[in-house]
Amino acid sequence: MEPLHTFVSHSTDIDGTLHTYLPDKTRNLIMNHTFVELSEIFLNDRIMCIRKSTGVQDVSGTTKQVTQSTIMLRCGQKNIYIHADKYYLFKKHRATRNNNREFFEHLLTKI
User: Fold this and answer.
1) Most CB atoms within 10 A, among 8, 47, 80, 111?
2) CA dist., res. 41 & res. 52, Å (int)
């Protein structure tokens, strides 16, 4: 069951809606993060996964593999596979941008 499904499906600003209706503890964790879709995630992005059914942080880590429905995150010393449709995905803001990263993002959008 997904309690926020109605709010999110009718919202034009999903990020703002989630920042408003998620629990306080979760809101404090995602303060410097932005909601993203699976198609906006690239390698080495810092991702925080909020479970849709509870609204609580479940997993966070660095992306190492992205497929159509799953993401492999590096969490400390282990790799964890998650099903993206069960989570709200939040990407951490980066203070600096790596030129290689921008190049590969641009290349992927052209393919």
Assistant:
1) 47
2) 18
